[in-house]
Design a protein that fits this description.
There is one protein chain. With 365 residues, the chain is of the alpha+beta class. 39% of the residues lie in helices and 21% in strands. The chain has 11 helices and 12 strands. A 5-stranded antiparallel β-sheet has the order 3-4-7-8-9. Strands 2-1-10 form a 3-stranded antiparallel β-sheet. Helix 4 packs across helix 6 and helix 9 packs antiparallel against helix 11. The longest helix is centred in the C-terminal third of the chain and has 19 residues.
Length: 365
């Protein structure tokens, strides 16, 4: 493998297709977390019935609880000296780490990383050293450590990697839509070779409409965005490269010279698997979440509802009886009152509560 546009495009295609099922599962669980439990068709049906699209979101509840729990336990890094003469160095390093955490709002970014791991099974952070273009009094350059969370839906992984920490991978891709002003500033003159709103990798998750809706069009002009892919890889000679590209255009190619890190992305899978996949802790909970929602909707329909059993000949016209029966206040004419039996749906309501209790019990276990 080489850092050529052909190999970049090929490895993106291979990695995306290998983990496509995992991406779909992660998208589904993220939808549940964000309370997007119903399709547009289902929402229209509920609206026509006059029913609220009520949900009992156990996935968000448990995810928030676990993130909060782990944030109280794992919220900092402590560097301990191994002997007495290392005390001063450890103290300086602790101050440095704490400053990096504060500057990068790691109390928030750390929670986002944990949440991504719980929901999708994939945690990723970007950590790099950037130049501030400022020098100290001795002429030494002052650099800044940056770190932030990378969403799992922007990543394309190497399917041949089997280590949970992704240390044996040969490449990683990250795709993202970028404003035209950013492209012009970082790669002057290159924007002429790019096509706005063009999905150059031809995958559904990279479509602009997938996350942002329609192209950004104002009253006076359209604000263009471009799909940019950042790839880090190790070639056949052992050299590591950082490449930015879009379609057939290689925007930037630089050798990675970091000594203590392979590349700036830190990836961790939550679960080991004998398959090419990643998944979070809610794989077994998703179907129970569906059962809870269905039970809640059925209870809404059944509360204050009744069934009418009509013996043949007890009423003249079933449709007329049904319309009258469904009114709040109605006088209904029947031929034989003994041939009409009204039954409350309390038993069916209790059955739905049993489903809810059993689903919650399975989730808690």
């Amino acid at each position: 493998m080489q850092a050529t546009i052909e190999d970049l495009r090929d490895t993106f295609k291979i990695g995306y297709e290998a983990f496509e099922a995992s991406r779909l599962e992660a998208d589904f669980v993220w939808d549940l977390y964000h309370n997007r439990h119903y399709t547009e068709e289902q929402l229209n049906i509920l609206a026509n019935r006059g029913q609220p699209a009520e949900t009992f979101n156990v996935i968000k509840m448990f995810a928030r609880m676990l993130v909060g729990y782990y944030s109280t336990l794992v919220n900092t890094v402590v560097i301990s000296p191994t002997n007495y003469r290392d005390v001063d160095v450890a103290s300086i390093l602790n101050d440095t780490v704490n400053d990096v955490f504060v500057q990068n709002r790691f109390d928030i970014e750390g929670d986002e990383i944990k949440l991504g791991g719980l929901v999708s099974g994939l945690m990723c952070a970007y950590v790099n050293v950037n130049s501030t273009k400022v020098k100290d009094q001795f002429g030494r350059p002052l650099n800044k450590v940056i770190t932030h969370h990378i969403p799992d839906n922007e990543l394309v992984l190497d399917p041949m990697s089997t280590q949970d920490d992704y240390s044996d991978a040969d490449f990683l891709h990250r795709f993202k839509w970028v404003r035209d002003s950013v492209v012009k500033k970082r790669w002057p003159g290159k924007i002429k070779e790019l096509v706005a709103y063009y999905n150059s990798v031809n995958v559904s998750a990279a479509e602009f409409r997938f996350n942002y809706g329609e192209p950004f069009t104002g009253y006076f002009r359209q604000f263009d965005n471009y799909l940019i892919i950042h790839t880090v890889l190790e070639d056949d000679e052992g050299k590591r490269w950082s490449c930015f590209w879009s379609g057939d255009v290689l925007l930037e190619k630089k050798e990675i010279t970091l000594k203590e890190a392979r590349w700036p992305y830190r990836v961790q899978k939550l679960h080991s698997s004998n398959k090419t996949e990643f998944y979070g802790i809610f794989r077994e909970v998703a179907e129970s979440q569906k059962a809870l929602n269905q039970a809640v909707l059925k209870i809404q329909l059944m509360v204050n509802s009744e069934k009418a059993f009509i013996q043949k000949g007890a009423v003249d016209d079933i449709d007329t009886f049904t319309n009258s029966f469904n009114r709040v206040n109605a006088v209904i004419e029947v031929n034989d009152l003994k041939g009409v039996k009204i039954e409350q749906l309390s038993r069916e309501v209790l059955d739905q509560y049993t489903i809810i209790d059993k689903s919650l019990d399975r989730i808690q276990r």
